[in-house]
Amino acid sequence: MGVHFKGLFIHGGITFQGSLCGLGGLMHKAPCRKSAYTADSFLHVPLPRWILKYVECFTGPDIMAIHTMLINKPPDSGKKTSRHPLHQDLHYFPIRPSNNIVGAWTAMEHIDRNNGCLSVLPGSHKGDLKPHAYPKWEGGVNIMFYGIQDYDENCPRVHLVMEKGDTVFFHPLLIHGSGWNRTQGYRKAISCHFAGADCHYIDVKGTSQEVAERDISRVGKKLYGIPDDLSLQDVLRFRVRLVKGKRINL
């Protein structure tokens, strides 16, 4: 059974076993907040068919994986830097139309407000992509943790308490974030964004997404030595992989 909210759908009762839990064990030892893997390193693990069944409702039968992460939120140092400001995932993707993109976020253990669960603004996916910038928080914020500067602070939020194996599917315009980890353990989750293979790339120059392109290029040059003049489109073209059907545009 699933639980519906405005802009998201939660599927419960599924527990990842075998290889995915193995990846979670590796991440438990890592000191980082997030690790972004190429789709190759993620997709050698067979995707459960039930995930693609729901994804296809949003993307159509030809499905591309465009971004994958193992998320390992560490215990907070006391500066609340483990929290993630409210944002829209479309800010990171030079792909349209947004209605053919969906994120799948799976808890790898019990997650609640104590260890930094997701917080969403139901119905916010019906709006436009809003300008993002680094929030001016005391204690600072992690690189590429952009936040929306213009949203109704009185808008009701839903905090997603999830059990191991619960998965939430959400629209890339849904405004969401996560709290800081108050526990002594790491909060682990795995996520993948999918898009219809007939989606298309856009040029983000001159848009609010240009800051993401700049920071991603800087990180890519520092960590992997890739040219810093690569566009966000170039980065995504390298990362995306076909997971079902046929490749068309992406």
The CATH architecture classification is: Sandwich
The count of strands amounts to 16
Tell me the domain tally. Answer: 1
Number of helices: 5
Report the portion of residues in β strands. 25-35%
Shape: globular
CATH H-level homologous superfamily name: q2cbj1_9rhob like domain
Structural class: alpha+beta
Rg from alpha-carbon coordinates: 17 Å
List keywords for this structure.
Phytyl_CoA_dOase-like; disordered N terminus; phytanoyl-CoA dioxygenase activity; phytanoyl-CoA dioxygenase; alpha+beta; eight-stranded antiparallel β-sheet; PhyH; 250 residues; Jelly Rolls; globular; 20% helix
Structural features, described:
This protein is an alpha+beta fold. The protein has one domain (2-244): q2cbj1_9rhob like domain (Jelly Rolls), CATH 2.60.120.620. The protein has 5 helices and 16 strands. The protein has helices at 19-28, 39-43, 49-59, 210-224, 232-239; strands spanning 2-5, 8-11, 34-37, 63-73, 84-87, 95-96, 101-107, 118-120, 132-133, 147-148, 158-160, 167-170, 176-178, 187-196, 200-201, 241-244. A hairpin with a 2-residue loop joins strand 1 and strand 2 (8-11). The radius of gyration is 17 Å and the shape is globular. The model is unreliable at 1-7 and 9-41 (pLDDT under 50).
